[in-house]
Design brief:
This protein has 382 residues and is an alpha+beta fold. The protein has three domains: 7-98, Arc Repressor Mutant, subunit A, CATH 1.10.10; 109-205, Winged helix-like DNA-binding domain superfamily/Winged helix DNA-binding domain (Arc Repressor Mutant, subunit A, Orthogonal Bundle), CATH 1.10.10.10; 287-377, PDZ domain (Pdz3 Domain), CATH 2.30.42.10. The chain has eleven helices and 18 strands. It has helices spanning 7-25, 48-57, 64-76, 109-126, 148-157, 164-176, 201-204, 208-211, 287-291, 331-335, 356-363; strands at residues 33-37, 40-47, 80-82, 95-98, 133-137, 140-147, 180-182, 195-198, 214-216, 226-228, 255-257, 266-268, 297-305, 313-317, 321-326, 342-346, 349-350, 369-377. A four-stranded antiparallel β-sheet has the order 1-2-4-3. A hairpin with a 3-residue loop joins strand 14 and strand 15. Helix 1 (7-25) packs across helix 4 (109-126) and helix 5 (148-157) packs across helix 6. The chain is globular and about 70 Å long. InterPro entries: DEP_dom (IPR000591), mTOR-Rac_regulators (IPR051832), PDZ (IPR001478), PDZ_sf (IPR036034), WH-like_DNA-bd_sf (IPR036388), WH_DNA-bd_sf (IPR036390). This is DEP domain-containing mTOR-interacting protein. One of its GO terms (cellular component) is plasma membrane. Residues 219-248 are annotated as: Disordered. Residues 301-378 form the PDZ domain.
Length: 382
């Protein structure tokens, strides 16, 4: 089982796939087509200036600068590229192409699952099967969802899988990669009458500038004003100003997390050291249990950005390391990190067999954003 992509990378890929689907569906005139320049044919490409016009016309950007910013994010993250890789994205008569269209996208199993999930979503939305629809349940209506058994039926009908067992395996992979989710995050994928949703719906219902976190405030007659909002490039390197476990005001418990990443020792308000609270893990969990594809644990991506105090959580244990404490007022809790989650990877490095000292040092290694892949127990999964 491979590590998942970061939530930010997954989101950018889904934005790119949504744009690709829309541009391919344009027919008058076709946006993506074979084009000739200086006696050479460039297949399946689009013109930078034309796409900027199209984004503004369709309300995905308020200004040409905002549209260029959107497309440049896709280029930086390998979704599109200049046909001969000579230019960044420009509002000019230059040819660009989606990497999926010329088969130059990075090859790995995670991306294959993500692309397959996006393809399934668009096929299901455009055919007459009505897979994705509203479902009433106990005086509540879940919109744009489907049941597990309906998806397995659809996959078999469309020859995506040979049998129901393979359908469940694919459904679990889609959920592990963040393409689908249970409507209340309580269950892993099952071939049952349980409701799930495609996460790409969150992208479909947003303007492109909003989906990519760009503030593009240019209105007719106003000066150009755009900037990225909470979405630095994937390769941004920024130093962490403070340790990840310093005391945070407002905690109910009177203790301070040790500054050193070497151990999870706590300091009470009096200043004298004492041992950390009793471990939160009732029994020892093995790495084999965590990674069992039929087990109750599922991978989840969590990105935590430190504030002026730190990341707001403490890790403990070894092979695997788990979350011992989460500050309820800190960025860890805000990002969805919870006690008893097990760490599978930190910033793309597999830490399943590391101890908490090694994991702490990796978390503190010069960045104020840490991308975690955690293993969490799904309620109701046996």
């Amino acid at each position: 089982m491979t590590d998942q992509l970061s939530l930010k990378a997954l989101h950018i890929i889904m934005v790119g796939e949504h744009l690709r689907s829309r541009l391919h569906s344009e027919e008058e005139p076709p946006m993506i087509r074979d084009r000739r320049y200086h006696l050479r044919m460039y297949p399946c490409c689009f013109v930078g200036r034309d796409v900027v016009d199209w984004l503004i016309k369709n309300g995905d950007a308020n200004s040409r600068a905002g549209a260029v910013q959107c497309m440049d994010i896709l280029l930086e993250n390998g979704v599109i590229h200049h046909v001969v890789d000579d230019h960044r994205f420009k509002d000019e008569m230059l040819f660009y192409r989606f990497r999926r269209d010329d088969n130059t996208a990075v090859k790995n199993s995670d991306l294959e699952v993500i692309f397959k999930g996006c393809d399934i979503y668009y096929r299901a939305k455009n055919d007459d099967s009505h897979l994705i629809k509203s479902h009433p349940c106990h005086d509540f209506v879940y919109r744009n969802c489907f049941t597990g058994c309906e998806l397995v039926d659809w996959l078999k009908q469309k020859n995506e899988v040979p049998d129901r067992t393979h359908g469940v395996v694919l459904g679990r992979k889609l959920l592990d990669q963040g393409i689908i989710k249970h409507v209340t995050d309580e269950f892993h994928f099952r071939d049952e009458n349980i409701f799930y949703q495609f996460m790409i719906d969150k992208v479909v219902n947003k303007k492109m500038v909003d989906a990519l976190g760009i503030v593009d405030n240019k209105q007719p007659g106003s000066p150009r004003n755009f900037r990225r909002r909470n979405l630095p490039p994937l390769n941004t390197q920024r130093s962490s100003p403070v340790p990840f476990a310093k005391e945070r005001p407002g905690l109910d418990e009177q203790f301070d997390y040790e500054r050193s990443p070497d151990s999870p020792v706590f300091f009470p308000s009096s200043g004298s050291p004492r041992q950390s609270p009793r471990p939160v893990i009732v029994r020892e969990i093995t790495t084999r249990e965590l990674m069992d594809p039929e087990g109750p644990y599922v991978m989840k991506n969590i990105s935590v950005k430190s504030d002026a105090v730190g990341f707001g959580f403490v890790v403990r244990g070894s092979s695997p390391v788990y979350v011992q404490t989460v500050d309820p007022n800190g960025p860890g809790a805000a990002a969805g990190l919870k006690v008893r989650m097990f760490l599978k990877s930190v910033n793309g490095k597999d830490v399943l067999y590391w101890n908490h000292r090694q994991v702490s040092q990796e978390i503190l290694r010069g960045q104020n954003i840490v991308n975690l892949v955690v293993m969490t127990h799904f309620k109701g999964v046996k």
